[in-house]
Amino acid sequence: MAIRRLILLGAPGAGKGTQAQALEELFHIPQISTGDILRAAVKAGTPLGVEAKAYMDAGKLVPDELIVGLIRERLQEPDTQSGWILDGFPRTTVQAEALDALLLELHQELEGVVLVDVPEDVLMERLVGRRTCLVCKKVFHVKFNPPPEEGCSREDCPKTWVQRSDDKEDVVPTRLAAYRAQTEPLTDYYSSAGKVHTVDGNRPPLAVLSSLKEVLG
Ligand code: AP5
Question: How far apart are CA 35 and CA 30, in angstroms?
């Protein structure tokens, strides 16, 4: 059975966003990135953004109750009917349990969990070199995937590539520590339900995508 309701698990910089953007185009199902939603809220200065900003800048996780409410709303939007790719959620056992309850309520089933596995020593270089298109949020890397001279795929691309404030060298170790302590245990949480597939993320993006396509069917 094809997997179209899925979670992408993996450390900061593992390539979840890069792969989710590619899968979104391929399968026409939305990437739901809690990080992107939070960054948009910070930029817009909403109450959620104001509360989340300090946690994000410090590399710490935002409190579960803020995130769960946000996902509850997002999973009820019409574009999620034929599937979704959760990127960056759940990140704690509390969030995973809340997702279980929410899916029961929505009569939807989590069809698979894919762990994009990358050794920790690779992650720092990926994160500090990441750049994102100011407008469409497409992800690039100064060395591994430089932003194209002609801009991203949008006609109005301002060719402005921004670095995330939490991609600074002094913040990344806190993010990696939060991943190890709070998110890594989710692999066991989902393994017991037989839902976890592991993909080697320490290869070029297209090779990783090819493995993902095989797993997702
Ligand atoms: P979030 O935005 O979710 O960040 P993250 O999980 O730390 O993941 P990243 O976006 O850093 O990495 P990625 O795996 O998507 O890698 P990417 O594809 O961009 O969260 C940010 C913050 O928001 C958190 O710290 C927290 O404060 C808060 N937050 C979000 N969700 C939360 C939640 N559920 N609960 C609580 N708090 C939450 O790739 C990275 C770089 O590597 C790019 O430059 C890319 O071009 C490059 N790259 C990708 N793949 C490859 C490859 N195969 N080879 C070489 N380079 C590659």
Answer: 14
